[in-house]
């Protein structure tokens, strides 16, 4: 049976079971949100037990990231329109000033002073509004800039996300076709992370990821960048670095994780990391660099986990 047919069958079975569960909960007076939560959890658990691993948190994170980008796009477009409108108002004010000056020169019979005073008052009010608008624009620009930064951050670990990685790669690999760069990629995978989630729950798993992220950030320089690559996978790019120096950092990270434990609800969680390292080669793209580092992680897993492999 093909994967598509298997998944279709799992979905069909899940729908039947969810329908029965929902009916029972409805009889007991459960709220709609409780029924939805139970249904979604049951569906993802059935997929996981059937070998089709999906993490609802990853799906939610992806949805949040898309929505954040949409909000950012709207904010940037609105700010652009606001600035254009503001410039137009300022241009109109200056144009009208010139036109009024011409009128005052050509029509001496009208009360020029009163006209000047009234228009001057109008102009002052309008300029004041423009100044206030400029203040708002500057504030909005700061907020949009902050939103832009937030859209590049993984909401759970506060590391950079895949979107930020793609942006940064353009800078890191700018001269990739010309020469070999002093750039090292470190791919990190938390060993047996699914077992931690299944044994201690997703909240415990999230806490593990947060602690790992803090360790990674404290182990690198400001010029290096750490990313949550996906699930329990992380990627660190070391710029202006030698492989031997990054090996020492990797060893230190692995030792720290191996020799420490996490206490969650009076239960001890121990874990290890599998790490793959690779140096930049002339002509490398982000894809080729990540592919070699990922292959090295795979070899570390095959070798028994808690290993460092250079690819």
Describe this protein's structure.
This protein is α+β, with helices and mostly antiparallel strands and 311 residues long. It folds into 3 domains: 3-54, no CATH class; 60-151; 162-310, Reverse transcriptase/Diguanylate cyclase domain (Alpha-Beta Plaits, 2-Layer Sandwich). It contains 9 helices and 7 strands; from the N terminus they run αααααβααββαβββαβ. It has helices spanning 3-27, 32-49, 56-106, 112-151, 162-172, 193-200, 202-219, 243-258, 286-302, and strands at 183-190, 225-230, 233-239, 262-264, 267-269, 273-279, 308-310. A 5-stranded mixed β-sheet has the order 2-3-1-6-7, sandwiched between helices. Helix 1 runs antiparallel to helix 2, helix 3 packs antiparallel against helix 4 (112-151) and helix 6 packs across helix 7. The chain is extended. It starts with a helix and ends with a strand. The model has no long low-confidence stretch (mean pLDDT 78).
Helix content: 55-70%
The tally of helices reads 9
Instruction: Give helix and strand order, one letter per element, not per position.
Output: HHHHHEHHEEHEEEHE
Overall mean pLDDT stands at 78
Amino-to-carboxy terminus distance: 36 Å
Strand fraction: 5-15%
CATH fold-level assignment of the largest domain: Alpha-Beta Plaits
CATH class of the largest domain: Alpha Beta
Shape by Cα distribution = extended
Across the major sheet, the strand order is: 2-3-1-6-7
Gross CATH architecture of the largest domain: 2-Layer Sandwich
């Amino acid at each position: 049976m093909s994967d598509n047919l298997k998944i279709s069958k799992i979905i069909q079975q899940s729908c039947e079971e969810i329908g029965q569960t929902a009916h029972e909960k409805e009889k007991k007076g459960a709220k709609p949100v409780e029924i939805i939560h139970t249904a979604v959890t049951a569906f993802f658990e059935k997929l996981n037990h059937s070998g089709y691993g999906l993490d609802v948190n990853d799906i939610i994170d992806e949805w949040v990231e898309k929505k954040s980008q949409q909000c950012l796009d709207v904010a940037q477009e609105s700010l652009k329109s606001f600035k254009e409108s503001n410039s137009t108002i300022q241009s109109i004010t200056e144009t009208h000033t010139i036109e009024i000056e011409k009128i005052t020169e050509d029509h001496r019979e009208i009360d020029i002073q009163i006209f000047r005073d009234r228009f001057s008052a109008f102009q002052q009010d309008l300029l004041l509004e423009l100044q206030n608008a400029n203040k708002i624009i500057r504030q909005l620009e700061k907020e949009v800039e902050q939103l832009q930064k937030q859209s590049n951050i993984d909401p759970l670990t506060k590391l950079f996300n895949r979107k930020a990685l793609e942006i940064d790669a353009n800078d890191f690999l700018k001269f990739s076709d010309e020469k070999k760069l002093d750039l090292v990629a470190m791919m990190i995978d938390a060993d047996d992370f699914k077992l931690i989630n299944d044994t201690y729950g997703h909240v415990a798993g999230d806490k593990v990821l947060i602690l790992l992220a803090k360790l990674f950030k404290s182990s690198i320089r400001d010029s290096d960048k750490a990313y949550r690559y996906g699930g329990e996978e992380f990627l660190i790019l070391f710029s202006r670095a030698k492989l031997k120096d990054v090996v020492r950092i990797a060893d230190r990270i692995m030792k720290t994780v191996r020799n420490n434990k996490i206490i969650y609800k009076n239960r001890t969680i121990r874990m290890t990391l599998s790490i793959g390292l690779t140096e930049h080669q002339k002509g490398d793209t982000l894809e080729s660099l990540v592919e070699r580092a990922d292959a090295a992680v795979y070899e570390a897993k095959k070798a028994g986990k808690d290993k460092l492999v250079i690819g």
